[in-house]
Design goal:
With about 200 residues, the protein is an all-alpha fold. It folds into 2 domains: about 55 residues, Arc Repressor Mutant, subunit A (Orthogonal Bundle); about 120 residues, Tetracycline Repressor, domain 2 (Orthogonal Bundle), CATH 1.10.357. The protein is about 60% helix and about 0% strand. The protein is built from 10 helices and no strands. Helix 1 crosses helix 2, helix 6 packs antiparallel against helix 7 and helix 7 runs parallel beside helix 8. The longest helix has 22 residues. The C terminus is likely disordered.
Length: about 200
Amino acid sequence: MTGKRGRPSAGEAIARDERVVDVVIALLTAEGFDALTFDRVAAEAHVAKRTLYGVFGDREGLVRAAIRRQHPYLADAGEGTADLPSACRAILVQLLGDEAIGIQRAIIGAAAQHPSLAAEFYDDGPRRAQGFLAAHLPSDAAVSPELLFTTLLGEPHRRRLLGITDAPTTAEIDVQVAGVLRVLGLHGLTHASAGRESSSP
């Protein structure tokens, strides 16, 4: 809270929303979707419930904001992701990290009771990531963005979801990316050869 009357400044609103997302992620990863209530988020983020409803709409809106934080490469696609290996690394760094894995576990746990939440998670997460990969694939690539995405995550992602392994190191991610691109015949590609349109809406 700013302690001021009237509307918060743009900077204050951004800081407030980031604080809310911090709380949402903490609740999802520690206790699951059922723990995510407007009362708890408002209390722990020190934000009025009316403000939460106005900014995020509903619980699904809170989750959507948490999911989108896991894909920062989509906002700055032109920086650090000039070629296909860089794009692959950007995805793995985020989606094999602790926050993303915690959110995915919460969504999986709630999917049966909240199928629309699961569908939104897929659209805001995996589908958009596949679109990002599509933009870095050559137009004549025989490999679909869906196959590349699935192969990239592969067993490392399964082990992370099960809590068997910790988040990978940069070196481990580099090995995973290089191996996948080699197996799929995509090694050595740069942005200059890319330009495939996403098959996802």
